[in-house]
Amino acid sequence: MKIALGADHGGFELKEIIKSHLEKKGFEILDKGTYSSESVDYPNFAKEVSKSILTNEAKYGILICGTGIGISITANRFRGIRAALCGNTTMAKLTREHNDANILALGARITGDVLALDIVDTFLSTDFEGGRHQKRIDLIED
């Protein structure tokens, strides 16, 4: 499965940790940047990861900035993207089950590395329940 990763300078280090973690688990990674901790603008990376999902280049995306807020707001501007900012594994599980989120957003300055990896693993291993939740997804997309 292909996962698109993107981060600004505030999320660069956590992106690299997540990238290594997922590669060890056998995921194919599309690293959309940034590639250093030099200051950059987060909307550019949210756009690239969102486009990867919408063109089926990747199944899911993970976006990281300092808080996860700005980068998730940007991603959610794209029709068909459901980016969820998650601060714990319960949020990650429920957003996949109920919202069929296709992008996970994380705040590198808010969430520690170990918890972030648990959130990533939960997000990627949880399936959408469909059923009554599909109606709500359809309402979001209308």
Description:
The protein has 142 residues and is an alpha/beta fold. The chain has 6 helices and 5 strands; from the N terminus they run βαβαβαβαβαα. It has helices at residues 12-24, 42-54, 69-75, 89-99, 113-125, 132-141, and strands spanning 2-7, 28-31, 60-65, 83-85, 103-107. Strands 2-1-3-5-4 form a 5-stranded parallel beta sheet, with helices on both faces. α1 (12-24) crosses α5, α2 (42-54) crosses α3 and α4 (89-99) runs parallel beside α5. It starts with a strand and ends with a helix.
Q: Layout of helices and strands, plus pairs?
A:
Blueprint: E1 2-7, H1 12-24, E2 28-31, H2 42-54, E3 60-65, H3 69-75, E4 83-85, H4 89-99, E5 103-107, H5 113-125, H6 132-141
Parallel strand pairs: 1-2, 1-3, 3-5, 4-5
Helix pairs in contact: 1-5, 2-3, 4-5
Features:
single chain, 142 residues, alpha/beta, five-stranded parallel beta sheet, 6 helices, 5 strands, 47% helix, globular
Please sum up the structure shown.
With 142 residues, the protein is of the alpha/beta class.
